[in-house]
Protein 1
Amino acid sequence: MAGVKLPTVLLHQQVARWMIRQIEEGVWQPYSQIPSEWQLVEELHVSRGTLQRAIALLVDDRKLYRIRGKGTYASGPVLEEPLAQSLLSLSEALDLQGQQVTTQVVRSRVLETAPAWVQTDLHIDSEEPVLYLQRVKQTADGTIALLDNYVTLNLFPGIQRVNFCTRRLFDVIERDHNLTILWGSRTIDVALATDAIARVLHVERKAPLLYLSQVTYVTGNIPVECSRVWIRPDRMRLKSIVARDHPR
C-alpha cells in the first residue's frame, strides 16, 4: 500500500454512516422520527452544521425524509418498480417484488359527461358515459399511491358493478371482456400534493410526488382507459433499463 493515498472520509460522511447503522440495526425503526438535531449534536459531539450536512446527504439518498414543522424520519424500504419500461398496473408491478397489496376504493361512479381531457384521451364525445374509479394502494408499510381511472362504459357493460377492492382493472378488461391490452402512452412527471391528495397519502401539503398519466389501448388501437397516478417517492421509485441504439 506504499505510495497509495486512501480517500479521506469527511466528518459529515462519518456521521452519515453512523446514522445508516442506526437504521440498518433497527435502532431507528422505519417511518419513526429520529432524535432532534440538538440531541444528536450532543450525543455525537459534532457541530450542528456537520450534522445538517450528514442529514442532507441521507435525505438525498432517501435514507431519511423530512416533514416540515415536525422533524426528520427514517425511511422504510423503497420499492423499485419497472413502471417506466413495461405496461404493468401498479398491483402487477408490486406483485413482481412479492409485495402484498391492498386496494381501497375511495370513489366509484358513472359520469354521464367525462372531463374534457378524458374525452380527448379516450376519443369520445361529451355524451358518452365513463366509469370514474379512485383507489388507494397500500402495502404493509402504508399508503403508496392514489389512482384516478376513467374507463369507457360502452365497451364494458356492467363494469361499474365490479368490486375493485379485490379485482384489478386490467384483469377485468382482458378476462371479463375478452380484450387484449396492447400498449399505452405513459408520461412521468413530478406534482405537488394538493390538500385532498395530501390527506389520502398522509403527506404534507405541497409535498413532491411522482405523477404518472396514461392512456391504455387494446386491439385495434382503441383507447379504453386513461389514468392519473400520484406516488409517494419515499416509498417507491421508478426503475428503467435502457439500451443504446448504436448507429449502423
Note: Residues 11-74 form a domain with the Arc Repressor Mutant, subunit A fold (CATH 1.10.10.10).
Protein 2
Amino acid sequence: MIGPKRIWVGIGLVLTIAPTACAAPPDIRPTTVVTPPAIPTAAFASAEPSPTSPSPTPEPPPAVVTYTYTYTIVNAYPHDPAAFTQGLVYADGVLYESTGLYGRSSLRRVALETGEVLQRRDLPAEYFGEGLALFDGRLIQLTWQNNTGFVYDAASFALQQTWTYPTEGWGLTHDGAHLIMSDGSAILRFLDPSTFQAQHEVLVTDGGQPVVWLNELEYVNGEVFANVWQTDWIARIDPQTGRVLGWIDLSGLLAPEERQGADVLNGIAYDAQNDRLFVTGKLWPKLFEITLAPQP
C-alpha cells in the first residue's frame, strides 16, 4: 500500500484510510466500524495490483439493476465472544470456524445451536488465522500476512500439508471446481484445489468501479457473497464477470448493548441442503440465521 486510500462508502461520503490500516496495532486490525448512510454503490478505490498478473480492465457498467437486500432474523444462536471470526463454514450439522489474532488463532468445530466448541486446533503464535473452506474432506485455512495456507483432515484436524501464496490471505470459499480467494483488494483469485496454483482472477466492480476490501467469502447459489471489511455490507458477486449483483445491508443485527466489545461483521456460512444463511462477526456474542429480501 502506497499512501492513504480514499474509499467511497455510500453516496458522497469519502473516507481517508491511512496506509497502515491492515498492520496497526501489530496484533489486530483496526476496529472502526464504517456504517454507510445509504446504499453504497461500492467501497470504491483503485484496485490493488495483482502480484502475478496485470489487473483486468474493468468491464462496462452492467445493464441490470443492482438490488439492495434487507434481512429477517430467523434464529439467533450463541457465539463465543472471544472468537475473532475470520472464516466460517457450515457442513454436516456443525460450523467450522477460523479465528484470528496472533497467539489466539484457531481452527474450530462448533455446535450451531449452543455455540459450544466441539473440537479445536490452535495455530502457532506467529500465525494470524484467516479464511476457511471445506473441500473434498479437507479444511483449508489461510493466514493473513504469513503467505501460508494450512490443509487439515476435516475429521481429525490433523495437518496434512502447507502451501504458499504471494498475497495476503483474507477470505476463502469454493465453487465446486476452484478455491476462490480474496486478499483485501478488488481481486478474486480462482485456485486449483489440488495444486493451489492460480488459474484465473476477476476484478470485482460495481458500476464499472473496483470494489475493494473484499474479506470473508461464501459461495451461495452460483454467487460469491463477500463481506466488505469495516462495513455492515455484503456484496453479491457474479463470479464469472466480477460484477456486483446486489448489496445486503446487515446493519442493526446486534443490539446497541451487544455492540460493546464486538468488532466488525465478518463470517458467512451457507447450508446448501436446507437453504439457510448464517452470519456473524469478530468477537460477536451471537450468530444469526437470516433470510433476505429486496429492499422496498
Note: The chain has one domain: 5-294.
Protein 3
Amino acid sequence: MGVSGCGKSSVGRGIADALGLGFVEGDELHGPANVAKMAAGTPLTDADRAGWLAVIGDRLAAARADGRGLVVACSALKRSYRDGLRAACPGLRFVHLQGSADLLRTRLQARSGHYMPASLLDSQLATLQPPGADEDAVTLDVAPPGTAVLQAALAWLQRPADQRPTHNPAMTTPTATFTQVILFTDTDGRARFREQPIALTEGKPQAMLSPLMPSGGLQLRHSPVGFRSEFHCTGDPQWVFILGGQMEIGLQDGTSRVFGPGQHFFSADTLPAGATFDATVHGHWSRQVGPDPLVTAFVRG
C-alpha cells in the first residue's frame, strides 16, 4: 500500500514471487470511469473508490476461502478503506511504502505507460492516513534500493505476529534531509499542506541534527475522545507533535490528514494580513480520532 510512485507493484510482485503466492495489480481493477478521471488529473472520491475496493475485497476473500495466499498492490490510503478490506479478509497485513514527495514525484515523472499523472501525487499525499499502531502493518522507507526494501518486507512478513514491529529497524538509515510537513496559508487564503526538506548539517553520521531552531515555549494538550474544533487559523506558527492518540486536520477543500503517535507537522496557517476571518474560506479544523484521547505537544517559534 501507499501513494502512487512508491513501488507497490514491484515490491508486491517480489513478495509474491519469493513466497510462491498469486499477485493482483489493483490499478488494473479500476473501471473505465475511474481510469478516465485519473488520466484527466481529477482525484477520485470515496464514492469513486467504493466499487474498486469491493472488487479487491472479493479477490482477497476468495483467496482466503480457498486457503491460498494472495498479494495485492493497492493504495489503501485511508483507514476506512483498510477496515473494509480487513472485513473481507480477516488477518490481512499491510506493507506501507513511503518516501519523500520529491522522490515520489521524480519517479512518477520518469514513469511511462501509466494513466496516473504525477499531478495527482499531492492529492494522494493529502488523503493518505498512515496505518495506526493497532493495524497489522509495517512502514518502510523506499529511498534504499528496491532489493533492500523487498528484503525488509519479507523479513517482517515472515516474523511471528507478536514479533513484528511497525517500523523495520533494518530500514532506518541516515538520510541527508528531514521532511517537514507544513500546514500553511496559500495565496488564495486557504489552508494547504506541503512538504519541504530540512538539511541535517550538524552532529555525526550516526546521529545527524538540524540547526537549532527558535522556540517560543512548550505547551501540552489533552483532548478527550470526541473532541473536534471549528474552523480556525493558527495564532502563532508552531510545531505540533502527537504524543498519544490520533489527530486529524481537515481543510476547506474537504481533504484531511491524520497524524499518529510519533508524527508531527508545522502549523503556519495564519490569517492573511488585512483579512477578516471567514469560516467558509480561512482556517482548518482538528479532531481526535480513534478510541484513545489525543495528547499533543505544541512548540512555538
Note: DSSP finds seven helices and 15 strands in the chain.
Protein 4
Amino acid sequence: MMAEENIFNRFVLTVREVQGARILELGTRRSNVNRPTISRHLFPDAAEYIGTDFQDGVDVDVVADAHSLSGSFAPEYFDAIISLSTFEHLKYPFLAAHEILKCLKIGGRLFVQTHQTFQLHAYPSDYFRFSIEALAAMFPEQMGFRTEVALHEFPAEIHSVLGVTKPAFLNSCISGIKFAATPEQFVYDLPGTMAAEDSGLRATLARKFAALRTRLGR
C-alpha cells in the first residue's frame, strides 16, 4: 500500500489528545549537529518526552540500547513510542521490537518508520531494509499489538548496472496500538509452532519429557 496521506501526522494528532502523555523516541542522536532529528516540538503538551540513543550526544536525554530498553525504563511506562529511520541500524530488530512493546502501555501507540530501499548510511552501522510485511511480523497480534496502518511511501526506482530498473519505495511505516500485555518471550507466527496461550503447556510437556528421559537413564 502506498501512502495517500501522512500517517505520521495522524499519529501525532492522536497522541496529542492524551493528557499528560509520556513519549519515548528512539535513535535521536544527531548524526549531523546542524540537523535535529528529534520530534519533541510536535508534542508541546507532553508531560514527559525522552529522546534516547545507544550513544550520548545532542538530543539524547537517556542513553539506552533499544535491544535492552526495558532495563532503562519501567514496564508499560510510555503512552507513545516513536522510531524514525532507526530500525535499519538495529542489529537484532526482533529483540528491539519485543523490548519496545514491554515499555509501551496497554492502550499506548507506536509509530515506526524505516527504509524499504535506501543507500547505505552507517551511524555507526547499517544492517537491514524492511517491507511493511517485515514490520508487521515484528509487531504481531500474538504479542498484544494491533497494526492500524502499514504502508510504503515515497516511490523510488532501483537501477542496476545490468540495465534493469525496478520500482521501490524509500520508506516503510507502521502505526498501531498495544491492546494486551506483552508476553515474556517473543511469540513467532510460524507454521507448526504453538500459539502464545499454549506456551505454558509446551513448557510443561518439555519438563515431563526431560524427567522421563532421566528416569530411563537416557
Note: The CA atoms of residues 28 and 59 lie 6 Å apart.
